[in-house]
Amino acid sequence: xxxxxxxxxxxxxxxxxxxxxxxxxxxxxxxxxxxxxxxxxxxxxxxxxxxxxxxxxxxxxxxxxxxxxxxxxxxxxxxxxxxxxxxxxxxxxxxxxxxxxxxxxxxxxxxxxxxxxxxxxxxxxxxxxxxxxxxxxxxxxxxxxxxxxxxxxxxxxxxxxxxxxxxxxxxxxxxxxxxxxxxxxxxxxxxxxxxxxxxxxxxxxxxxxxxxxxxxxxxxxxxxxxxxxxxxxxxxxxxxxxxxxxxxxxxxxxxxxxxxxxxxxxxxxxxxxxxxxxxxxxxxxxxxxxxxxxxxxxxxxxxxxxxxxxxxxxxxxxxxxxxxxxxxxxxxxxxxxxxxxxxxxxxxxxxxxxxxxxxxxxxxxxxxxxxxxxxxxxxxxxxxxxxxxxxxxxxxxxxxxxxxxxxxxxxxxx
Length: 414
Prior knowledge:
The protein is α+β, with helices and mostly antiparallel strands.
């Protein structure tokens, strides 16, 4: 018999587990063995330690756990767990997002194909092709011009995104793709299959994301977030909300996100949809059927009074009422990626000073002396995020940048 207040939570952080417990939920927790801390066990009713991205390994464990514990929903708040949670939904008839729909988000090539085959969403369609052999790059550049983008079809945090700025860069890009396919030392390669790559037409313009929560097909905009990205690598170093947009452009972004989610067949839960505001109007970049990272959950909760991760858990179990409409901002928030020179960390300074700042919202910095700082090729190569509040977006960004300068991470070359 199903327990209406018991959830199968797949992956994520200890913070996700504690949110489920704070909601009064019983949790059957699925986690990679090397990411599970034994002190978390008292927060769970059962723990399944396995590579949950391997469906053949996960399925029998889930079937046995369902017979024993009768959970009523499968939820993941982290990218690698989204498709496994959807497979569990399908297998056990739990409702929620199906694997077919979830995989349209986690596979960026499927997302592009879905957009190409349906009604146009946004100001234009984006040319895209799979990268299958070495000559594809030159053919795509000849057909669609330079620059263009090469990126993995799976993954997150801008990992593996390469901007191809001209024909003379093709050899370097081929080597880069080969290196990414064969890399084993980066932590992201353990959770994602960085094998397939795709090419996309470059779309100029600033990047934003629309944070939504969908209630049985009704898509409510929580906020529009402004993304500050590094040139060429497209790493998102800063996020600020509400975005500094005209009312007209903000409405365009919100409408585009809703059209996109309907096109994808998405009906329930959070989504983080990245949109480029091109000279011709909004253009879909990509989307995730989860809450965005970079402390966006804390920022949305602080500014709008809505925790989308807790809502994702309670809505999946039928324990939450839908939001009546878009929440109203109470101030603003910004977060920034903490970075340091490549090498081995010797000492970290300024963290307690930042924590004590009244403008600080959160400090998510786990780096300690001895840790290795990798080259900054994606947000995962950063050392964490700090976030700050302000009466408006300009003030929140200023507070965040001020605190960022106060943190000093000293490294030595290796």
